[in-house]
Amino acid sequence: MAKAKRTAAVAPAKAKPDWGQMSPEMRALPNDMWRAFCLALVTGPGGHGKYTAAARAAGFGQGSTPANLGKLAWQLAHDDRMVAAIAAEARRFMRAGHAEAVNALYTIAGDAKHKDQMRAISEILSRTDPVVTKQDISVTHKVIDPDQEALEELRALRQIGATREKLVELFGQNGLSRLEKLEAAENARRAAEAKIIEGEVVHG
After folding, report:
1. Secondary element (H or E) of residue 50
2. How confident is the model over 132-160, as a mean pLDDT?
3. Nearest-5° angle of CA 163, CA 166, CA 169?
4. Is 17 left (phi over 0), alpha (psi -120 to 50) or beta?
């Protein structure tokens, strides 16, 4: 009687992490460990050692010394592909924080003792039921620059009293620093243009 054939048990394939619909910048990263590093850096705590902590959380440096892991983490964080992915994910996390920003705005509007209560009320009314001041309606197709959009959201969050810790949480430390540099450059450009306009001589 023939012996029954034994079938080797096949180990179930390890499920890959579900990243959802990734941004093009995240898809451009070499592998999932790089993506995990990006998310850990954007969502994790800032401060000294943030690169090493993000690398460790992503699974890098198994058996490496802290010094070697720190060097690797620094290189990862400053790779051009990683810089682009961090900026993209910081914007996405910031937009995901819109609900929290709205809640904060309504909290201020409902606090009669808050110094910015009227500003918060005005902000709510202007965005939900704007006052129509003219009949002429024009349609403008505007291409929104992602950096400019992020700067506008940063300024809006500041107006409703968001702390720097909250801004870091929403943008990421690198994302916030990058936006602040863009903001400083934009302010410098506007100041230079204002000086040029003031220095012009109009001949009658």
Report:
1. helix 50-58
2. 72
3. 155
4. beta
Specify whether the backbone of 65 is left (phi greater than 0), alpha (psi in -120 to 50) or beta.
beta
The whole-number pLDDT of residue 19 equals 57
**Number of Cβ within a 10 Å radius of residue 36:** 19
Q: Which residues are CB-contacts of 29 (< 8 A; sequence separation ≥ 6)? A: 35, 38, 81, 82, 85
Q: What angle do CA 128, 147, 106 make, to 5 degrees?
A: 30
Write the pLDDT tens digit of every residue in 17-26.
Answer: 565 678 899 9
Tens digit of each residue's pLDDT (9 = 90 or more) over 91-121 = 888 887 777 777 887 888 788 888 888 887 7
Tokens (6 digits) for 9: 């048990």
